[in-house]
């Protein structure tokens, strides 16, 4: 199990970004812009996983811990 390093406002921001990027991905894919749609989808998935698991590899590499905000 990994240590949690995402919490509070950071977690909420990541969840909101995941939702917004999901909407952007769907709109882009419907318009036939596959590259933009796939990039938005992958980004949404990453932010969503960060929000759900409360862990971010980049935060760990940079020594950032937002769980005590």
TrEMBL record:
This is Inner membrane protein YgaP-like transmembrane domain-containing protein. The chain crosses the membrane at residues 12-30, 36-58. Keywords: Membrane, Transmembrane, Transmembrane helix. Residues 4-67 form the Inner membrane protein YgaP-like transmembrane domain. It comes from Natronoarchaeum mannanilyticum. Pfam families: YgaP-like_TM.
């Amino acid at each position: 199990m990994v240590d949690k390093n995402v919490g509070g406002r950071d977690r909420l921001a990541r969840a909101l970004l995941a939702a917004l990027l999901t909407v952007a991905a769907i709109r882009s894919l419907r318009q036939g812009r596959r590259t933009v749609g796939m990039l938005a989808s992958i980004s949404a998935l990453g932010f969503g996983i960060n929000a759900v698991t409360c862990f971010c590899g980049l935060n760990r590499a940079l020594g950032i811990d937002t769980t005590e905000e």
